[in-house]
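Re: Re: ligand-bound prediction request (bumping)

Still looking for help on this. To restate: I need the protein modeled with adenosine-5'-triphosphate bound, output as structure tokens. Inputs repeated here so nobody has to scroll up.
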Amino acid sequence: MIEMHDVWKTYPNGVSALNGINVKIDRGEFVYVVGPSGAGKSTFIKLMYREVRLTKGRILVNGYNLERLKEHKIPLLRRQIGVVFQDFKLLPQLTAAENVAFAMEVIEAPTKKIRQRVNEVMELVGLGDRLNQLPNQLSGGEQQRVAVARAVVNNPAVIIADEPTGNLDPETSWEIMHVFKKINDQGTTIVMATHNKEIVNTMKRRVIAVEGGRIVRDERQGAYGYDD
Ligand SMILES: Nc1ncnc2c1ncn2[C@@H]1O[C@H](COP(=O)(O)OP(=O)(O)OP(=O)(O)O)[C@@H](O)[C@H]1O
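Reply:
Sorry for the wait, this slipped through. Here it is.
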């Protein structure tokens, strides 16, 4: 599903964010990426959807070699990857349902299919009764559910989430995690960078720890492993 072979990333300012990453993530896995601030977690996951370009090495995502990928094929790659951010990134002038529908409109899905699928994923995230609210009429947890619905609406093979519970209180964080678990149970691969110790320690999934741009730990049923 996702393979990195000796991947290095140096930013234009000279910061060496990743220093020789080797990893293989299989279809259907649920992977936490942990590590201290500035360790390279965001860089690691941004490489997976080509938000960041590597300096050296090779990355394969669902059969696509990311460095060889022609510009016009990038939408094809992105369709197979759903992304969830810490700050939700919803379009403020669109309703919850319209935010989710937008992700299908850009791939030119038929209108009828959009309506049906939007209802389905809004139910999946537990917001079947909030379709017409604007983001600022929703709580943080509800906004993140909309963002998760938007990420899954095109049936991606993988969801990449960067600190998705970072702005949420503990109870709301757990509600969001249950949504991610449900999506993973349906076969979608999930890669999540997080500082949430309690969630990582309770869920007991694969944990990849990054420090100084290197993978220092990779455990099947791992623990968070840091004090913060
Ligand atoms: N666009 C950029 N330009 C230059 N340096 C960057 C850029 N993005 C990240 N860095 C640097 O790369 C290193 C790794 O950053 P990254 O954001 O990947 O870490 P992180 O583990 O996700 O941190 P955090 O937990 O604080 O989000 C840091 O030294 C950071 O300052």
